[in-house]
Design brief:
By secondary structure, the chain is an alpha+beta fold. The chain has one domain (33-173). It contains one helix and seven strands, in the order αβββββββ. It has a five-stranded antiparallel sheet with strand order 2-1-3-6-7, covered by helices on one side. It has a two-stranded antiparallel sheet with strand order 4-5. Strand 1 and strand 2 (73-75) form a beta hairpin. The radius of gyration is 23 Å and the shape is elongated. The N and C termini lie far apart (81 Å).
Length: 181
């Protein structure tokens, strides 16, 4: 009598291991997506808190001195096709560094080829945007990004009227979600 496994038994074991590993990898990918989304939400919350501190100190939110102030730079159009960091200096959201936040966060997938980025849009004095009209200062803003997990209950499609492709927004000041740009 021979000892050992037959070819059929070995193939069955290999098939079972293959099926189990594919289930584990699929679960791991889902966890990565949820982790990136949690970071995006935390990042925008931190930026929003720094904006409120800036407002308390200056009586207005940071002016947005470029057409599109994003975590991929100061851009002329959306979606971004290049760039990898906020504009810096005295442009828009960069005004909160270093007095109100030590460093501006970047989207976890913030690469030049990715469509994931953070976006800041200020409402200027005399401008009507996001359901509000500002008097003599920048009185409101919208921070937005895209969440990857489309089943996330916090998703609000078209929450940013200036960039409807983003599905997660934090309004500041008197700005309202789902309002026109």
């Amino acid at each position: 009598m021979k000892k050992g496994f037959t070819l059929i038994e070995l193939l069955v074991v290999i098939a079972i291991i293959g099926i189990l590993s594919s289930v584990v990898l699929a679960s791991l990918n889902s966890a990565r997506v949820k982790s990136r989304d949690a970071r995006r939400i935390a990042d925008l919350n931190q930026i929003s808190k720094a904006m409120e501190l800036y407002y308390d100190a200056n009586g207005q939110y940071p002016p947005d001195n470029c057409i599109y102030d994003t975590s991929k730079g100061c851009l002329a159009s959306l979606p971004p096709t290049s760039g990898s960091d906020w504009a810096g200096g005295t442009v828009g959201v960069s005004n909160i560094v270093p007095n109100f936040i030590s460093k501006l966060a970047l989207d976890p997938l913030n690469t030049s080829s990715s469509n994931f980025f953070y976006y800041y849009e200020a409402v200027f004095a005399g401008q009507t945007q996001f359901g509000t009209t500002c008097g003599s200062t920048v009185c409101a803003y919208m921070l937005s990004t895209s969440l990857e997990n489309t089943a996330d209950p916090r998703i609000n499609n078209s929450c940013n009227g200036c960039y409807p492709s983003h599905n997660y927004c934090i309004p500041g000041g008197s700005a309202r979600l789902n309002s026109s740009c």
